[in-house]
Amino acid sequence: MVLRTGVAARALVLPTAVWLLGAPLAGQPPLRRGGTIRGRVELRRQPAETELRPAVTELGSHGPHDLPDRRRSVVYLESAPQPAFAQPQPRRATLDQRNESFVPYVLAITVGSTVDFPNSDRTYHNVFSLSKTKRFDLGRYPRGQSRSVRFEQPGVVRVFCEIHSHMSAWILVFAHPYFATTDAEGRYRIDGVPAGAYTLAAWNDGVVRARREVEVGAEGEPADADFALD
Amino acid sequence: MLALMAAVSAQSTASADAPSFFGGRLRLGGEVSGTLGSDDKGFFNYSDYAVSRLRLFRIDLAAELRLASALAVLADVRTDNLETPRVYALYLRVTPWPGRAIDLQAGLVPPVFGAYGRLRYGYDDPLPSLPLVYQYLTVLRYDSVPARAEDLAAQRGRGWLVGYPVGASDPETGLPVVAGERYDTGLQLRVGRAPLSAAVALTQGSLSCPLVHDINDGRQLSGRVAFTPGPALVVGVSAASAEWLSRDVVAAVPAGSSWPSGRRQDALGVDVEWSAGYWIVRGEAVWSRWGLPAVAETLIAEPLPALGAFAEARYKIVPGLYAAARLEHLGFGSIGSALGRQTWDANVSRLEAGLGWEPRRYLLLKASWQHDRRDGGRVRRSDLFAGQVLLWF
Q1: Most buried residue, A224, B1, B159, B225, by CB count within 10 Å?
Q2: Is A89-174 a CATH 2.60.40.420 domain?
Q3: Which of B187, B270, B183, B246 is nearest to B221 (CA)?
């Protein structure tokens, strides 16, 4: 998993590295209103259900909990025009803790964004991450309270709950705005992409599972790019 | 077992899921821990004559096999220092109404008494050691008893290897107040309805000596009621009572002896856990008494009482790093003998403090310093250092 996560992390860090080196996609015009990349990500395999660890020391069975939606994927440009990095579009996002599950399971944000972690359960939760991109520990807090974290580096952040070991989530922090999370049917749409040729990556549950080339025309016609992930 | 651990660990990778097979019907979990500490010449941390908590390599594999929606088999197999693996838990769990907190468990079941006994996984214990009341070896044995108060007094502070004239003659390890390293065999029922929950168990052994096989035709009745007014606080009250001596030692008691203090172990316990933010604070007190035969002068005419208590706190300093400390005392009641009036076992106190570091998920490193004091025995003071590596999945 470390290796698989590493693949994803490199892919996400790459745009920043390119920008820092001053060598983004060469000769790109300034960022302007652009075209659309759209498509569908099909998961051929059935995502594994979350499994609780055996509660051998407990006096009874564990109560019900929600399952994370692991069908959600993130599609993003592996490289992007340089101006995209100079215009971060930070936003505020929410990763809820509900029925002993993080909702959503996958959250994609841009660098500089702040994520709120409200607790909607009657029990305590203790959100933390030991990821290199962002290490944080929010401590234990009850229902109705929330804590926030600002993400200042691109990369992959694995989020856990210290109290409920079956709870986990992913936060993907991008250095550019050209990414999208799939909907319940696997559809995605990335708008405002400047004309050009790009490598598009499809990420699911910790792994970049597919890449493909895509060309966005100057005429503004949508570029279709479907993925079938094994 | 190592190969199996490696295989399932590889499958679990860095996922939050337990490794599972057969469509999730079989789930596995486990941990591997290695603890290396100073030479414990005073046997303060021994749970057996040969096994110290501070010098221990442990592999533990737990499994849950779901036979039906209301029926599961749970098992836990463990090896200490690569010795023959032994079954730690093996029981059937029946949940007649899924979604409601009513469970019936039968077999080699977890203890209902107290709270710390169920914090079995190393990840739950912020320090490498176990609390004294759950681990420290007193001078009592289930299969051998003193004839006179003087026999008992002569063994004070020697619980790691103790022998008496009545019953089994070979010196063996004594019993802890509550055995935190073994499960008992029997039936238990858990019922929960917030903010209260209750559990009651009928088992073969006693708190000090949980058993797989019956040794005395007696049964232990134990129970705990927990009050959870909110997520921050849990308060539990426990009680247990059992015949604790083996039928062999009872049979070996000379004719004409009496049992003025009975032959039961009775215990009461209170446990509290409070947590908020970066803090977890736990406290527990266990009072217990054991009945022994009055064989010869000076007679042991009263049950032998003991009171153990501890308080521990853990505070997270930065993500992945915490500090923890535990302060505890285990005291014993006094008896009169030709040697004067003194506690029937040597009182013990312990202060332990340490750090825990989690460089990545599923890997925890602990380091601790422990100061022990005892008012009897060969070694009366001890300063011990220990480090522990813990991998779990």
Answers
A1: B159
A2: yes
A3: B187
Whole-structure pTM value: 0.89
Q: In 3D, which of A144, A127, A141, A136 has the Cα closest to residue B276?
A: A141
- The complex scores an ipTM of 0.86
B50 within a domain of the structure (yes/no): yes
The answer to whether position B351 is within a domain reads yes
Contact criterion met (CB < 8 Å) for B277 and A165: no
Residue extents of the structural domains in chain A: 1-24+36-43+67-86+186-230, 89-174
Q: What is the pLDDT of residues B207-234, one digit of tens each?
A: 999 998 888 888 999 999 999 999 999 9
Q: Show contacts of B188-193: CB within 8 Å, 24+ apart.
A: B188/A59, B188/B104, B188/B105, B188/B106, B188/B109, B188/B112, B189/B102, B189/B103, B189/B104, B189/B105, B190/A59, B190/A60, B190/B101, B190/B102, B190/B103, B190/B105, B190/B112, B191/B101, B191/B102, B192/A60, B192/B101, B192/B102, B193/B101
Alpha carbons B347 and B330: distance in angstroms, whole number: 6
Which residue is closest to B200 within chain A, CA to CA? A59
| Cα B92 to Cα A144: distance, rounded to the nearest angstrom | 38
The CATH topology of domain A1-24+36-43+67-86+186-230 is Immunoglobulin-like (2.60.40)
- Domain containing residue B322: 38-57+89-392
Residues of B in contact with A127 (CB under 8 A): none
